[in-house]
Every structure is written in structure tokens, then in C-alpha cells.
Amino acid sequence: MVTPKEQIKIICKGVHQCISEEELLAKLERSYSQNKPLTIKLGLDPSAPDIHLGHGVVLRKIRQMQELGHEAVIVIGDFTGRIGDPTGRSKGRRPLTEEQVKQNALTYRKQIFKILDPEKTVVRFNSEWLSTLHFEEVIRLAASATVARMLERDEFKKRFHQGISIGIHEFFYPLMQAYDSVELHADLELGGTDQIFNILMGRTLQKSRGQEPQAALFMPILEGLDGVEKMSKSLQNHIGIDEPAELMFKKVMEVPDHLIIRYYELATDVHPDEIRTIKSELMAGKNPRDIKFGLAKIITGLYHPESEVQKAVSYYEAAFSRKTVPDEVPILLLAIGKETVNDTIPQLAAMGLVKSRSEFLRLMKQGGIRLNGETIKEEDLDTVLFHSDVLKIGKKVFVRINK
Prior knowledge:
By secondary structure, the protein is an alpha/beta fold. The chain has 17 helices and eleven strands. The strands form two sheets. A six-stranded mixed β-sheet has the order 1-6-5-2-3-4, with helices on both faces. The protein has a five-stranded mixed β-sheet with strand order 7-11-10-8-9. Helix 9 (168-184) crosses helix 10 and helix 11 packs across helix 15 (306-320).
């Protein structure tokens, strides 16, 4: 078994902040001496069930700890999801219905095991304990924090000063998330830097209930493909872990050059020594595209079998190096001989191949949409499509029509 000091070096690699390293080391030493794994908690909000590489930063860190012998409890916030996390919100979030929460939670369960070890992972739903609390217990929960403490949270502070309403129920979100830690007797909780308030509230509530407070690890926020904003599906700058290998590989190749090393550090399991070598090669003038090609193979290989990775490489090289139509391209299913170019736009957007109808039309006006190699214009939108027709969208996306 890996010694506690070696474990903490591995655990803290790439971490933005640990609260506190001394407490975590003490927990690891006790775990080591008693041969008892730590309980690692991660809460997931089921409002956005498509996991992307940004979520994967935290999940990959948990996987590292599982390989050190510890166990993870993934808390699906099916109860808290009915309130909505106010993090990053300038106004209250519309609550999800119970059916929406259940459907999203099922999607999460399928996706997280692309990263986590199923044998060392337990998935729980916080409705198991939160839905059974009596009103007297809810009052006791509310008494564990003050309004002044809640208003320390940036989102609440801004809304308060701007005169934007704050529902009393919104104060309960961090309290309920904190109660999850009490229920699980969590030793350690992980989250992004946008979850600091919620996770520290877990420490506060555990102390008030006579428990040893959990340690907290805050992981950096991974920037998306725009190179500026955090990775987010709503911002259309994400790389989903459930996306086809060809699309994933292509997207990684679009990572801005200044983020290559950050993606190696946060989105792969490459050893730090190897990353230092790659960084030196970049600084010495090696072509960033060549280094990014290796990054794309590594990331795609984390979520797809080797055969799919090779298809993705062949697709990319054919499409973007030799400028030909690849053998393996996404297939668009249409009623052949009935549907038109215009009819394809909703499907293309649903597949993530264009962001929206307006983006498709903008590309078309710029000469960026081709049908079987011919540039199409607005008057061509009513062109009927047939089997094996190929649409090229922009410089990098091909779609073959099928029935």
C-alpha cells in the first residue's frame, strides 16, 4: 500500500487548494494504519447530465484516489435539484421536475463509470435522507448558519446589493448539500473552485453535529474550446465524454495552443515528468499541432476503445490533411428523396455539429456549406437530399446522408 506521504503528493497534484493538507494527511495516516479506506464524496447536480472534460477533472482525481485504495460516494442531487444550485446565477434557477431529475440521474450513472472504478464507487441519491427530515430537523438545520454567513456567498451578495430577490428556499441549497456530508460521514469532498462555499458549509455542519470535519479539495476550472470561459455545454465550448470518437478527436485538435499543457495536466493521466518534457518541447519550438495530435489520441483513448481511436485518427487525417471525404463520417438519417438541406439543420444542431440554425445560415452565407463538393446558397436550401450525399460544414465537419 502506498504510504500516506506519497499518497498526499499524488492527491494534491494539480489541485487548486486543499483544506487542509495537515487534516488530510492525518486522515490518510489513520486510514493506512487501520487499513480502512477514506470515504470520498462528490455531489452532482442532475440539471446537466452530459458529462464533459470539465467534469472529468474532478472525476479523474477521484479515480486516482480509488487506485490508492479509497472509495467514492457519488451523491446525485435528486432532492436538491428540485431547488437548483444558485452558483453562478444572477437570479434563482427554475426547479426541475421529479421526472427530469430521475432521467438526468440515469444518464449520469451511465457516464461516470467511463472514468470511475465501479467496484469502488457507490451512487446515492440525497432524497434518501433529505426527503425524510421532519420539520423540526429542518429548523435545526437552518439554525446552524446565519443570514450574514449566507450573504458572504458572491451570488447572494450581488443579488442583495442589486435589489434582486433571493428566495428563502435558496439558502437551503448549501445547507442540504452540507447535510449530505453529515449523512455519509464524508472524510473528503471534492469540487471545482465554484463550489468552495457549499463544501466548506459541509465542514461547518459536520462540526456542529460532533463529526470530524471533512477535508476539501478544490480542482481548477478547465477552460473550454474558446480558451476563455469555463467549459460548459450551454456555452457550446465543451468536449463531451460521450461524444463519438471522431468528434472528440476533432474538438481536442481545436484546443487553443496556450491551453495544451493545461489539458495535459487536468484532462489526462499523463505523468508530471512526461508533461514537463512536453512543455520543454513546446518552448523549444516544436509544432503545437504535433503535440496536440498526441493529446487528442490520449484523451480520445480514455473514453473509447483503440479501434475507435484509430478510426478517429484516419477520419481527421483524411478530412483535414488530405482534404478528402473520410470513409468514417457521422451519418444523418433522412427520408431519402423527401427531405431537403433545410430539413437537416435541426438534426445537425442536435448532434452538436452546428450550434444553431443561425450558425448554419451564417456559414452558408460565407460559402462554408458544401453539398457533394459544391457550395450551396440560400436558394439551395430546398434541394432534396439522396442516399450517400455528403454535406461539408465549415472546414472540419462532414456528414453523410443515409436512409
